[in-house]
UniProtKB/TrEMBL annotation:
Entry keyword Protein transport: no
Species: Nakamurella alba
PROSITE patterns found in the cross-reference section: CDP_ALCOHOL_P_TRANSF
CC terms in the record's Gene Ontology section: membrane
Key words, A-Z: Membrane, Transferase, Transmembrane, Transmembrane helix
Protein name (database record): CDP-alcohol phosphatidyltransferase
TM helices/strands, residue ranges: 46-63, 69-88, 135-157, 178-200, 206-229
Species lineage: Bacteria, Bacillati, Actinomycetota, Actinomycetes, Nakamurellales
Keyword Transmembrane among UniProt keywords: yes
Domain of life: Bacteria
């Protein structure tokens, strides 16, 4: 097992720009899960399926089960474990010699479905099981929009950078990598969002915290969109 983990470390995807939870907790956890999956002969697509099973179980609990302390803990555990397996599938693919287009497609489709349905499930749970003011419903609606746009923007940025590199042979450097930056952007970390669901059993506590995380994500997206547009403009001015 130790030799497999060491090999995974050598083939590790760059952590540039990754928030603290993803960088220091989720990726190492995914490395261990990938090593276990490799030893068990699992495929990256199989690991993606396990990630989806845990994630969508947690999401279903939000919409179908009345909030209690135990349901909140269970939701958080399902989402955290699902996120760890989400980190494991790509690492397993690299360990096996590289991923496939179909595997990357499946991984991103599951991610896109997950980040949208999570906030819609929060909206359903809020409507069905709480007596909070209707204005709170605007938060998960807004969060669903912000999460979907942010995910699409990041995927589009990566795609356009790869196209630029393939056309010109020039690698495009990404943003900062410091530990301080990882801490500063932690409110945008999906892993942090997973963890705060331990508060789900106390809606009057959960929703203010959830609203703050949403506000941070919305603010980050507004600032990032300006930077991303400038970055893409810089690619336009590069060699053709």
């Amino acid at each position: 097992m130790r030799d497999v983990v060491a090999a995974l470390s050598a083939a590790q995807k760059t952590s540039k720009g990754a928030p603290a939870y993803s960088r220091f907790v989720n990726r190492p956890a995914g490395r261990v899960l990938a090593a276990i999956a490799y030893r068990a002969g699992a495929t990256p697509n199989g690991v993606t399926a396990v990630s989806a099973l845990f994630s969508f179980t947690g999401i279903a609990l939000l919409a179908l089960v009345r909030p209690t302390w135990w349901s909140g803990v269970l939701v958080a555990v399902c989402l955290v474990v699902g996120y760890a397996f989400d980190a494991a599938d790509g690492q397993l693919a690299r360990l096996r010699g590289g991923g496939s287009a179909a595997g990357e497609w499946l991984d991103h489709m599951v991610d896109a479905l997950k980040i949208s349905t999570l906030h819609l499930a929060v909206l359903v749970g809020l409507f069905r099981f709480t007596e909070l003011a209707d204005a709170w419903m605007l938060v998960p609606i807004g969060f669903a929009v912000v999460a979907a746009v942010m995910f699409f923007g990041m995927m589009l940025n990566d795609s356009l950078r790869r196209q630029f590199t393939a056309r010109t042979g020039i690698a495009v450097e990404r943003g900062g990598t410091s530990g301080l930056r990882s801490l500063l952007v932690i409110p945008t970390d999906y892993g942090l969002l997973c963890v705060i669901f331990v508060l789900w059993g106390a809606p009057s506590v959960f929703f203010p915290v959830y609203a703050v995380v949403f506000a941070c994500n919305a603010g980050f997206l507004a600032l990032a969109a300006v930077k991303w547009f400038r970055d893409m403009g810089a690619l336009d001015k590069g060699p053709r």
